[in-house]
Specification:
heterodimer, A: Aldehyde Oxidoreductase, domain 3, Aldehyde Oxidoreductase, domain 4, 3 domains, 6-stranded mixed sheet, B: alpha+beta, Ubiquitin-like (UB roll), DNA polymerase, domain 1, 2 domains, 5-stranded mixed sheet, 5 strands, globular
């Protein structure tokens, strides 16, 4: 790749100043003249028919401009083409507590809230399903009529010969693992502002503009078109700054459509911003997952076969569910060499807010189970856990048994690094009682090789426009959500054009201006939008080179762009390129360049030169070509798109990131409290385009995994989320956050832009098992249910001592979760929930005295 | 509800405003004065994104009545920049990655500014304790500590904050 001037340098994000000064605008910071406030009425029942809906009293309130209900936008949509099961507002039926029933648009928030109180809704409650294993037995009163047994989707994959693999195993481990539900809790609550403009020719409302906190502007444009029955060309989606997503904004959230429907009815701009409680209802987080895992190994630790049965508690709508359940199985592959795999996955509907994509989509909970079981096996066979992982490494380049192509593979170095840095060999097993070390690994895709909407379209396209002022404007639909996508794009373009970063302006995610990009999800932006930016920059560079070659009387191959200059290769250039750029460049303009026409003319008398400023070269190129634009796009190569089996589309990626982690914890055996002292996290990101950003992503992932491991959990009572606030959800604060050391490993991927792969998600999954394995090392207990809350740790410690079980676990051994408890695993709340329908299966079970 | 006239002093300027008695300081700042730097991240003073300083003390503007703070010197994140440029803390947060999505950053600015004004050389534990009033969901806080350390070191040498590239 040669020496880079800006790639690989730790630099501040290009939008950092707007964030630290408060000048940057997020959706809720925007206002339009005549803008109304939209407020949504939510269902108080988990599953009910709407028998009557009367908005007349609310409409009569002065200051209420419009009220919309399901009838105003009945078209179904969903993020996946196979899962179009949502409507903007409920049509005839509600499916979870918090489901959307009506929206009021009023002149202020106070009036809108008053109007909500005046809407009369008569519900007929239906039996509701909260436990996926119960829900799968349902035969009537289904959540969606076209989903028998409330199963959204099930997959049954066999790769290799698992039966033979187990027959050849020396030891087989088998256990059930449960990971409870977590949510993104991005700091910015979702917000959407929608406004129609009047068509000058028809005089009626015409084009729609939507500003929204979204990771996927293009998909939003697409779904708005579907629901509002407007052509996509009449819809403009603009993504302002987004205050974090983590997957929670990677699909269409109801308010995004509701705001547009309300704006249409009100004939005025409408802004809807969720309260924090509504964000929890909108959810789309990581589903509660039951994993039955069986691993066969040889005595030396080599894995011979794996069977994995996964049940995901998907909530009331499909969302990304079909993809989630596929990722859970597919990414059993591509980390270790597993010759035989059987996978059975069930995505089940329940009457709770829909689960969707969350950082590490589909892989995190299964990885917890897998890495924990590996640790159990290592202990059983008396192997070093790190060594057991080394024994099972892949030998790339390779294609795994389930069709995943692996090229770059930095996992061995990641393991070596964390083992060395943590002092594993010297300290493991020698720490005092109550303190321990644990190791685990994980991986993730650098973008899905197959798009959600099946087509041959490129996954990313980037356009570049350069004008006579020497400014480089880059148009990309990639959604900056805080991960640094704009900065990555600017760095790549500046590197290719050899110009200063200050010349680059990134226009991101405005569907009128920027070419289609699928958005920010599945860690695809650096790899795909980055490659598109690279190609666009090379495209525009061609024209600069040909014009410069003419000016300098040399072959195009001899033209070099570097240091904000364009020059002719040779000794003079080599000497000059070590010096700072010309004064004229530093000053930022060339005299007379624009007003007096072509630099080519004014400089003609000077004869051939061997270098020029970037601006001079740009002007020469525009004079020669009549304009200076470039475009580049990226679609994953066919070889990376996976196998042919049903469901083979999910899992394949052009490249995988790898992570290894060691956690050091101590466990207070009196209180059950787990303290994580330090986590060493090595991440193979291919190449760190911006080390500050990579470290930020890796540390952020590890930290979010730590939250899920120790304290975060959506707590349910009969379908009602009991902790819908940031304090109650217990996102870790600075005092609960350990020291995290990030070690960047660069494997230089052959297809990544400058060798780069993903950095934003892959590290999360290793953190949870690294902590559980460290807990085992510290006090000898195996925790098979996440989070490792003090009550679970304490119960497991008591079980180990053979002490009486603590009553608060309701007779269930937390180390051996056999089934979900009726309302979802919470041990905290015993209060009375909403009234249940007599046919509710949970109520029947309770009446029979059989509360599991 | 009837509006009444109040006078708020924000970032060194006085504003006469007609607000309802129950208007929250955060809403008045954002909607009446268009100072949208202070954010609403929760509704119950649990996240700290709305932090402003009242007479130099960080407070949560999402649960304070605007009318009660007449006569106080209110500082928002918009009042942190110095002479049209970034304050050292703002520059350091950018250079060291202390800000990712940026939604919590204005709140952190107000909290850290208070910390450093009252304790120019805080211990690690003191920094952690001070920051625990604000939640961040992106960074895991690690890079914020680096940024704060850089500001403290620069202050000790009474120089400017060095670029991240120069210190790594």
């Amino acid at each position: 790749m040669g020496k880079c001037s800006i790639i690989g340098k730790p630099i501040a994000m290009v939008d950092a100043a707007g964030k630290t000064t408060g000048a940057g605008k997020y959706t809720d910071d925007l206002a339009l003249p005549g803008m109304l406030v939209g407020k949504i009425l939510h269902s108080p029942y988990p599953h009910a028919l709407i028998k009557r809906l009367d908005t007349s009293r609310a409409r009569a309130l002065d200051g209420v401009v419009a009220i919309v209900t399901g009838e105003d936008a009945p078209n179904q949509y969903g993020i996946l083409p196979v899962g179009h099961d949502e409507t903007a507002l409920a049509v005839g039926k509600v499916r979870y507590i918090g489901d959307n029933v009506a929206c009021v648009a009023a002149i202020n928030e106070e009036l809108a809230d008053q109007a909500l109180e005046l809407i009369e809704v008569e519900y007929e409650p239906l039996p509701a399903y909260f436990d996926p294993e119960q829900s799968m037995k349902a035969e009537h009163e289904l959540i969606h009529q076209n989903r028998p047994n409330n199963i959204e989707k099930d997959y049954h994959h066999v790769f290799g010969n698992p039966a033979k693999g187990f027959a050849g195993a020396d030891y087989v481990a088998e256990a059930r693992y449960v990971a409870n539900e977590v949510t993104h809790a991005a700091m910015e609550p979702h917000s959407t502002l929608a406004s129609f403009e009047i068509d000058p020719h028809t005089g009626k409302p015409g084009r729609l503009t939507v500003w929204s906190s979204t990771q996927v502007p293009y998909y939003l444009q697409h779904k708005l078109s579907l629901v509002l029955e407007l052509p996509m060309s009449q819809i403009r989606v603009i993504k302002p700054l987004v205050g974090g997503g983590f997957g929670g904004k990677s699909e269409i959230i109801p308010l995004e459509i509701i705001a547009a429907v309300a704006a249409r009815a009100a004939n005025a701009p409408v802004k809807v911003t969720y309260t924090r409680e509504e964000v929890f209802w909108a959810h789309r987080g990581r589903p509660r997952t039951i994993i039955d895992l069986k691993t066969g190994v040889k005595n030396d630790g080599r894995i011979t076969a794996v069977t994995c049965n996964v049940i995901q508690d998907g909530g009331a709508y499909c969302s990304y569910g079909v993809v989630t359940i596929l990722y859970s199985g597919a990414l059993l592959g591509a980390l270790y060499d597993i010759p035989n795999i059987r996978y059975d996955g069930y995505r089940v509907l329940t009457n709770k807010p829909a689960c969707g994509a969350m950082r590490g989509h589909g892989t995190v909970n299964v990885r917890f189970a897998f890495e924990s079981q590996m640790d159990e096996i290592a202990a059983k066979l008396n192997l070093d856990p790190a060594e057991m992982r080394r024994i099972n490494l892949l030998r790339p380049p390779t294609v795994t048994v389930n069709g995943l192509r692996v090229l770059s593979y930095g996992l061995p170095e990641c393991i070596d690094q964390v083992i060395a840095r943590s002092g594993w060999n010297e300290r493991k097993g020698k720490l005092p009682q109550g303190r321990g070390l644990g190791v685990a690994c994980s991986h993730y895709v650098s973008g899905a090789a197959n798009s959600i909407i099946r087509s041959d379209m490129p996954h990313s396209t980037v356009n570049i426009k350069i004008d006579r002022d020497g400014g480089v404007v880059v148009y990309t639909g990639a959604a900056e959500i805080g991960q640094g996508s704009d900065t990555m794009t600017a760095q790549i373009v500046a590197e290719v054009l050899g110009c200063n970063l200050s010349r680059i302006k990134v226009i991101a995610a405005d569907t009128d201006l920027t070419p289609i990009d699928l958005g920010s999800y599945s860690s695809r932006v650096t790899f795909m939008a980055g490659n598109a930016a690279l190609r666009a920059a090379e495209d525009v560079k061609k024209n600069i080179v040909s014009a410069a070659a003419r000016r300098m009387n040399c072959a195009p191959e001899d033209v070099v762009l570097a240091g904000d200059r364009v020059g002719k290769q040779g000794p003079a250039w080599s000497e000059m390129s070590t010096q700072p750029a010309d004064a004229e460049v530093a000053r930022g303009h060339v005299d007379g360049q624009i007003l007096r026409g072509s630099v080519l003319q004014t400089r003609k008398a000077e004869g051939a030169r061997d270098h020029m400023s970037f601006e001079e070269a740009v002007v020469a190129a525009i004079d020669l070509h009549g304009g200076l634009t470039g475009t580049g796009s990226y679609a994953p190569p066919l070889a990376a798109r996976g196998g042919k089996h049903k469901g083979a589309g999910v899992g394949p990626s052009p490249a995988y990131s790898y992570s290894a982690q060691v956690a050091e914890v101590s466990v207070d055996e009196e209180t059950g409290e787990v303290t994580v002292h330090k986590i060493w996290a090595a991440h193979d990101c291919g190449r760190a385009l911006n080390p500050v950003a990579v470290e930020g992503q890796v540390i952020g992932s590890v930290w979010m995994g730590l939250g899920q491991a120790l304290q975060e959990e959506m707590v349910w009572k009969d379908g009602l989320v009991m902790n819908p606030g940031l304090l109650e959800y217990r996102s870790p604060s600075s005092v609960e956050s350990p020291d995290i050391e990030c070690i960047i490993v660069e494997s230089i991927d052959p297809e990544g832009p400058f060798g780069a792969k993903e950095a934003g998600e892959g590290s999360l999954a290793a953190t949870i098992p690294a902590i559980s394995n460290a807990i085992y090392d510290a006090v000898g207990i195996r925790l098979r249910e996440v989070p490792f809350s003090p009550e679970r740790v304490l119960a497991a410690l008591r079980a180990k001592r053979g002490a009486r079980k603590i009553e608060m676990t309701e007779g269930i051994d937390p180390t051996q979760p056999a089934t979900f408890r009726e309302h979802g695993g919470s041990l905290w709340f015993r209060g009375q929930g909403p009234d249940r329908h007599p046919d509710d299966p949970a109520r029947r079970a309770a009446a029979a005295g059989g509360a599991q | 509800m009837k509006r009444e006239l109040i006078e708020l002093r924000v970032n060194g300027r006085s504003h006469e405003l007609a607000v309802q008695a129950n208007a929250l300081l955060l809403d008045v700042l954002r909607q009446e004065l268009n100072l949208t730097g202070s954010k609403r991240g929760c509704d119950d003073s649990s996240c700290g994104a709305c932090t402003v300083q009242l007479d130099g003390v960080p407070m949560l503007s999402c649960t304070m009545l605007a009318a009660s703070y007449q006569g106080c010197e209110i500082t928002t994140v918009e009042g942190v920049s110095e002479g049209g440029g970034l304050a050292a803390l703002q520059k350091a947060y950018g250079d060291f990655g202390g800000s990712q999505c940026g939604y919590c950053t204005p709140g952190f600015m107000m909290t850290v500014r208070w910390l450093l004004a009252n304790n120019p050389d805080p211990r690690e534990a003191e920094i952690r304790e001070a920051l625990s009033s604000n939640l961040c969901r992106c960074t895991g806080y690690s890079q914020m500590y680096q940024a704060i350390r850089a500001v403290i070191e620069a202050e000790k040498k009474s120089g400017t904050v060095e670029l991240a590239g120069a210190t790594r």
